[in-house]
Amino acid sequence: MSTEDDWRERRKLLLETTRVYDRLDDLIVGAKANAISLAVFKPKRVIDFVWEAEERTWDEAKVREMRDATKQYDLFADNTWRETFKVIDKLPYSFSYKFEDIAGKRSKLQVLDWEAGALYWNCLRSTNGDELKALAKVRQKYFDEFMRKDLHFFLGTTQQFHFVAPNP
Q: Could you tell me where the beta strands, DSSP code E, fall in the chain?
């Protein structure tokens, strides 16, 4: 689909063919009733875009578990990816939006889009390894630039969190 005219085709498909939620409580109730697992959400107001430092290295037990899983071939699938499996660098920061829904409920939800991480790595390269400058560039894109757009979030949970998660 074309991205021309401010993503007109994509916006029409997404925003005119599905319900756009504006209250988090509706999503939480729907998730707990096992009726909603993925939704389009329109915040009333985005308050901030923040980052938090994370562990800089992967958990060795988890890496070992993943490596072991790549050795277990699937009889009926293409297993060539297993031969090229590599552990990538761990993103040293997590990114989150702080926002308010139409009812005034404030929330902080993590951005899980891989593009935020890819942007961080690109910004880190362009700033010659200066993490603070790279983080400022990520914030400039996700907060300053995106706030000039009609921002919507895709919110969702996995089955295991439907009944217990305080947020979608």
A: 20-21, 38-41, 45-53, 93-100, 106-110, 153-156
Contacts of 42 (CB under 8 A, 6+ apart): 20, 21, 22, 151, 152, 153
pLDDT above 70: percentage of residues in the chain: 94
In sequence order, what are the residues at sequence separation of 6 or more whose Cβ sits closer than 8 angstroms to the Cβ of residue 137?
A: 119, 123, 126, 127
Domain count for the chain, please give it.
Answer: 1
Q: What is the CA 94 to chain-centroid distance, rounded?
A: 10
Asked if residue 126 belongs to a domain, the reply is: no
Q: Let me know if residue 3 belongs to a domain.
A: yes
**3-state secondary structure at position 30:** helix
Instruction: Kindly report the backbone phi and psi dihedral angles of residue 113, in degrees, each rounded to the nearest multiple of 5, phi listed first.
Output: -70, 130
Residue 33 lies in a domain: yes
If you average pLDDT over each of 65-69, 73-77, 99-103, which comes out highest? 99-103
Give the structural domain span for 21.
Answer: 1-42+152-168
Tell whether 158 is covered by a domain: yes
Whether residue 85 has pLDDT greater than 80: no
φ, ψ for residue 107 (rounded to 5)? -145, 160
For residue 13, the Cα-to-chain-centroid distance in whole angstroms is 21
Decide: helix, strand or coil at residue 124.
Answer: helix
The closest of 117, 111, 113, 115 to 97, measured between CA atoms, is 111
Q: pTM of this prediction?
A: 0.82
